[in-house]
Design brief:
Elements lengths: L19 H13 L4 H8 L3 H8 L7 H11 L8 H4 L14 E7 L2 E12 L3 E10 L14 E8 L2 E5 L2 E5 L4 E5 L4 E6 L4 E10 L2
Helix pairs in contact: 1-3, 2-4
Length: 204
Protein backbone atom coordinates (compact mmCIF):
# COMPACT_ATOMS: atom_id res chain seq x y z
CA UNK A 1 0.00 0.00 0.00
CA UNK A 2 1.31 3.46 -0.84
CA UNK A 3 0.79 6.67 1.10
CA UNK A 4 -1.30 9.36 -0.54
CA UNK A 5 1.21 11.90 0.75
CA UNK A 6 4.04 10.49 -1.35
CA UNK A 7 2.54 8.58 -4.28
CA UNK A 8 -0.29 9.34 -6.68
CA UNK A 9 -1.72 7.83 -9.83
CA UNK A 10 0.92 6.21 -12.02
CA UNK A 11 3.32 5.93 -9.07
CA UNK A 12 4.52 9.53 -9.63
CA UNK A 13 5.61 11.59 -6.61
CA UNK A 14 3.04 14.20 -5.61
CA UNK A 15 2.82 17.03 -3.10
CA UNK A 16 1.47 16.22 0.39
CA UNK A 17 -1.42 17.65 2.38
CA UNK A 18 -1.53 21.40 2.92
CA UNK A 19 0.75 23.45 5.18
CA UNK A 20 0.00 27.20 4.93
CA UNK A 21 3.20 28.29 6.73
CA UNK A 22 5.46 27.23 3.85
CA UNK A 23 3.10 28.87 1.35
CA UNK A 24 3.14 32.14 3.27
CA UNK A 25 6.93 32.13 3.40
CA UNK A 26 7.16 31.39 -0.33
CA UNK A 27 4.79 34.23 -1.22
CA UNK A 28 6.67 36.71 1.00
CA UNK A 29 10.04 35.75 -0.49
CA UNK A 30 8.70 35.95 -4.06
CA UNK A 31 7.00 39.32 -3.55
CA UNK A 32 10.03 40.75 -1.76
CA UNK A 33 12.03 40.03 -4.91
CA UNK A 34 9.26 41.44 -7.13
CA UNK A 35 8.95 38.14 -9.03
CA UNK A 36 5.62 36.97 -10.39
CA UNK A 37 4.49 33.36 -9.97
CA UNK A 38 4.92 32.86 -13.71
CA UNK A 39 8.50 34.21 -13.60
CA UNK A 40 9.30 31.97 -10.65
CA UNK A 41 7.85 29.02 -12.56
CA UNK A 42 10.13 29.72 -15.53
CA UNK A 43 13.23 29.97 -13.31
CA UNK A 44 12.46 27.01 -11.04
CA UNK A 45 10.83 24.58 -13.46
CA UNK A 46 7.84 24.29 -11.10
CA UNK A 47 4.51 25.07 -12.76
CA UNK A 48 2.81 28.37 -11.99
CA UNK A 49 -0.31 26.40 -11.02
CA UNK A 50 1.64 24.40 -8.43
CA UNK A 51 3.25 27.57 -7.04
CA UNK A 52 -0.21 29.10 -6.69
CA UNK A 53 -1.49 25.99 -4.87
CA UNK A 54 1.50 26.05 -2.51
CA UNK A 55 1.12 29.75 -1.73
CA UNK A 56 -2.62 29.41 -1.11
CA UNK A 57 -1.99 26.55 1.33
CA UNK A 58 -3.70 23.88 -0.74
CA UNK A 59 -0.63 21.60 -0.76
CA UNK A 60 2.73 21.26 0.96
CA UNK A 61 5.65 20.99 -1.46
CA UNK A 62 8.02 18.05 -1.53
CA UNK A 63 11.67 18.56 -0.59
CA UNK A 64 12.68 18.50 -4.26
CA UNK A 65 10.09 21.18 -5.08
CA UNK A 66 11.20 23.38 -2.17
CA UNK A 67 14.82 22.94 -3.20
CA UNK A 68 14.03 24.08 -6.75
CA UNK A 69 12.07 27.09 -5.47
CA UNK A 70 14.73 28.12 -2.94
CA UNK A 71 17.43 27.85 -5.64
CA UNK A 72 15.34 30.00 -7.97
CA UNK A 73 14.83 32.61 -5.23
CA UNK A 74 18.53 32.37 -4.23
CA UNK A 75 17.72 31.73 -0.56
CA UNK A 76 18.55 28.83 1.80
CA UNK A 77 16.01 26.01 1.86
CA UNK A 78 15.39 26.77 5.55
CA UNK A 79 13.92 30.16 4.58
CA UNK A 80 10.74 28.33 3.54
CA UNK A 81 10.44 26.95 7.09
CA UNK A 82 10.94 30.29 8.84
CA UNK A 83 7.35 30.58 10.12
CA UNK A 84 7.55 27.05 11.55
CA UNK A 85 10.94 27.67 13.14
CA UNK A 86 9.80 31.02 14.57
CA UNK A 87 7.44 29.16 16.89
CA UNK A 88 10.45 27.61 18.62
CA UNK A 89 12.96 30.46 18.93
CA UNK A 90 14.17 32.68 21.77
CA UNK A 91 14.39 36.44 21.96
CA UNK A 92 16.00 38.75 24.50
CA UNK A 93 14.67 42.23 25.30
CA UNK A 94 16.89 44.21 27.68
CA UNK A 95 15.53 47.56 28.87
CA UNK A 96 17.79 50.57 29.35
CA UNK A 97 19.97 50.15 32.43
CA UNK A 98 19.12 46.47 32.76
CA UNK A 99 21.07 43.34 31.88
CA UNK A 100 23.23 40.92 33.82
CA UNK A 101 26.27 42.70 35.26
CA UNK A 102 29.41 40.57 35.40
CA UNK A 103 33.09 41.01 36.24
CA UNK A 104 35.77 39.17 34.28
CA UNK A 105 39.09 38.33 35.91
CA UNK A 106 41.97 37.29 33.67
CA UNK A 107 45.20 37.12 35.67
CA UNK A 108 45.68 40.57 37.21
CA UNK A 109 43.34 42.20 34.73
CA UNK A 110 39.70 42.96 35.55
CA UNK A 111 36.90 44.52 33.57
CA UNK A 112 33.13 44.78 33.88
CA UNK A 113 30.48 43.97 31.31
CA UNK A 114 26.72 43.77 30.97
CA UNK A 115 25.42 40.71 29.17
CA UNK A 116 22.84 42.05 26.70
CA UNK A 117 22.23 38.90 24.66
CA UNK A 118 23.36 35.28 24.43
CA UNK A 119 21.91 32.81 21.95
CA UNK A 120 23.06 29.21 21.55
CA UNK A 121 21.62 27.62 18.44
CA UNK A 122 22.56 24.36 16.78
CA UNK A 123 24.43 26.29 14.10
CA UNK A 124 25.43 29.55 15.77
CA UNK A 125 26.72 31.18 18.95
CA UNK A 126 25.81 34.86 19.37
CA UNK A 127 26.75 37.20 22.23
CA UNK A 128 26.42 40.93 22.88
CA UNK A 129 28.14 42.66 25.81
CA UNK A 130 28.44 46.26 26.98
CA UNK A 131 32.04 46.38 28.24
CA UNK A 132 33.70 48.93 30.54
CA UNK A 133 37.51 48.90 30.95
CA UNK A 134 39.53 51.29 33.10
CA UNK A 135 43.31 51.93 32.93
CA UNK A 136 45.26 49.36 34.94
CA UNK A 137 48.93 48.63 35.55
CA UNK A 138 48.71 45.45 33.50
CA UNK A 139 47.79 45.26 29.82
CA UNK A 140 44.31 43.90 29.00
CA UNK A 141 44.24 40.36 27.56
CA UNK A 142 44.15 39.56 23.87
CA UNK A 143 41.97 36.95 22.26
CA UNK A 144 41.95 34.45 19.40
CA UNK A 145 38.79 32.69 18.29
CA UNK A 146 36.44 31.96 15.42
CA UNK A 147 33.73 33.99 13.76
CA UNK A 148 33.26 37.75 13.54
CA UNK A 149 33.43 40.48 16.18
CA UNK A 150 31.86 43.95 15.98
CA UNK A 151 32.87 46.73 18.37
CA UNK A 152 31.17 50.13 18.68
CA UNK A 153 32.65 52.70 21.07
CA UNK A 154 30.25 54.62 23.32
CA UNK A 155 32.74 56.47 25.53
CA UNK A 156 36.47 57.08 25.75
CA UNK A 157 39.36 56.08 23.52
CA UNK A 158 41.89 53.27 23.40
CA UNK A 159 44.32 51.48 21.13
CA UNK A 160 43.16 48.18 19.72
CA UNK A 161 45.50 45.61 18.24
CA UNK A 162 44.39 43.31 15.46
CA UNK A 163 47.19 41.07 14.26
CA UNK A 164 50.00 43.51 13.41
CA UNK A 165 47.61 46.47 13.14
CA UNK A 166 47.38 49.13 15.86
CA UNK A 167 44.10 51.02 15.63
CA UNK A 168 42.92 54.07 17.58
CA UNK A 169 39.29 53.67 18.60
CA UNK A 170 37.39 56.75 19.76
CA UNK A 171 33.82 57.58 20.71
CA UNK A 172 31.46 56.77 17.84
CA UNK A 173 33.94 54.50 16.04
CA UNK A 174 33.06 50.98 14.93
CA UNK A 175 35.35 48.08 14.12
CA UNK A 176 34.60 44.60 12.79
CA UNK A 177 37.21 41.83 12.59
CA UNK A 178 37.61 38.16 11.83
CA UNK A 179 38.61 36.76 15.20
CA UNK A 180 41.13 34.23 13.89
CA UNK A 181 43.90 36.80 14.37
CA UNK A 182 45.04 37.94 17.82
CA UNK A 183 42.97 40.96 18.86
CA UNK A 184 42.11 43.08 21.87
CA UNK A 185 42.35 46.44 23.65
CA UNK A 186 45.94 47.27 24.55
CA UNK A 187 46.17 50.83 25.94
CA UNK A 188 43.30 52.86 27.39
CA UNK A 189 43.75 56.61 26.90
CA UNK A 190 40.81 57.92 28.98
CA UNK A 191 39.49 57.31 32.52
CA UNK A 192 37.26 54.58 31.10
CA UNK A 193 36.59 52.92 27.78
CA UNK A 194 33.02 51.76 27.13
CA UNK A 195 32.06 49.78 24.05
CA UNK A 196 29.49 47.38 22.66
CA UNK A 197 30.94 43.99 21.73
CA UNK A 198 28.89 41.73 19.43
CA UNK A 199 30.29 38.35 18.39
CA UNK A 200 28.90 35.58 16.22
CA UNK A 201 30.50 32.29 15.31
CA UNK A 202 29.43 29.01 13.81
CA UNK A 203 29.15 26.12 16.23
CA UNK A 204 31.69 23.40 15.57
Amino acid sequence: MTSKDTMGNGNKPTESDSDPTIGNALRDLRETRAISARQLAEISGISAAMISRIESGQVSPSISTMSALSDALDVPLTSLFRDIVSERTDFTHVKKGAGIVSTRLMGDHMHHYINLAAHRRRDLNFEAHLVTITPQDNEPPRYVGHGVLLIHVFEGSAYYHYGKQKLLLEEGDSLSVDTELTHGVTHILTPKFVFLSVQAEARR
